[in-house]
Amino acid sequence: KAKARFRGQCIFFDATDSEEMKNTIAIERELREGNLEQELVLLFQPQYSPSKKRVISFEALARWHNPRLGLVSPNDFIRVAERSGFIQKVTAILFRKGLAELKKWPDDISLSFNLSARDISDQAFVLSLLAQIMKEEVSPSRLEFEITETAVMSDLATASTVLDRLRSSGCRVALDDFGSGYSSFEYLDQLPLDKVKIDRSFVRKVPHSIISREIVAAIIALCSKLNLRCVLEGVETQEEMAVLAGLEPDLIQGFLFGRPMSGEDAGQLIRDQQQSNANQTVLPIQSA
Ligand code: C2E
Ligand code: MG
Ligand code: MG
Ligand code: MG
């Protein structure tokens, strides 16, 4: 076991820790030296409205194609970018790319964009995103920002102010991964929100667990009482869908309705859907 001393404290690393350390260091180096403008891309995952029987929005999901690291998952690089101070640079690049794609789509399609803790702890940065929306002449109502409770936890007051600002500018705010944390319900009261995304950890258990189904049903009912839209995240199978559809969520997102796809493919999906709506048929469900 490797052992390191930091300020008199003993910290033990096991093999996986030191692997992770190496990864973190490599990711940090590439964040500094890589060509992020070129290497960062967005994929877009459809969000399907069961009542409208069509896709009404896409969530932008980051991918990083780095020549030395290969394909890096956002779960890996967002965390490192946060810690090492690169996150706003990353977010700014991704947001510009997201807006460029959104501009190509019809007005009734919107975009959900993930923000992380350091993004929303900085009011000036959030204002720069709003300025970008104005400059690109996109209607703010077509933009939704997704935040997680971990991102607001450390400074709830600043987060509230920033989210108010986004909403008063006409953008929407969604609480992501709802139910995966510790005190989720408190945030419904404390944060200015438009939407709640119910975490996949519940959705996954629904076919086999009556309790999970009741929890999802209760959250959906609560959202409706609080005038919040709700999204079911990570619906993968027809089996899950059969149970969940009856609960009448506002939106469903998951591999069953579409995996994260390129901007080009998203554009094609929108055109296909316009075509099939004109023919009075519903969007065919893609197999996962
Ligand atoms: P998230 O915002 O909760 O996004 C949903 C994640 O679930 C995505 O993973 C998506 O690909 C995955 N997913 C969607 N449907 C299904 C399904 O049916 N089954 C399963 N198993 N998974 C599904 P992804 O793209 O790897 O992103 C992971 C997380 O990284 C995101 O979770 C988000 O927290 C973060 N992230 C992604 N892009 C960005 C970004 O541009 N900025 C920031 N700050 N965070 C991002
Ligand atoms: Mg999200
Ligand atoms: Mg989520
Ligand atoms: Mg997540």
UniProtKB/TrEMBL annotation:
Domain EAL as annotated: residue spans: 24-274
Lineage: Bacteria, Pseudomonadati, Pseudomonadota, Alphaproteobacteria, Hyphomicrobiales
Name of the featured protein: EAL domain-containing protein
